[in-house]
Every structure is written in structure tokens, then in C-alpha cells.
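INFO  loader      accepted 1 record
INFO  loader      residues=61
INFO  predictor   begin
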Amino acid sequence: RELLDAEEAAVAARQRRVVARAERVAARLALENLAGRDVTAAVVAHEGRGARPAAKEVDHG
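INFO  predictor   done
INFO  writer      dumping C-alpha cells
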């Protein structure tokens, strides 16, 4: 029974990660639509330069 409970908890955790990832993608796409540019490419380039994750930095310009 404990093994089944642990497996159920692991499956639930994986499902939460998948949902969170989908929500991040949807938010990024919505931001791209609002900004009229490829935000994903800008974030990847920014993080590729060794910067902190862009989620904490917002470009309002």
C-alpha cells in the first residue's frame, strides 16, 4: 500500500510539472503576442549569456 501511495504521489508531481510547463509556455506566447516579438528567443539569448533567469527581470520598453 505504501508503494502504491508513493507511486501515486510521484505521478501527481509529474502531472503538476507538466501543467506548470504548459502554463509557462502559454504565458510566454501571450507575452509574445502582446509585445509583437519573439520573447522566447530573447529570453534564451539572455540566459545564454549567463544572466539570471529573465523571469525576475521585466522589459517594459
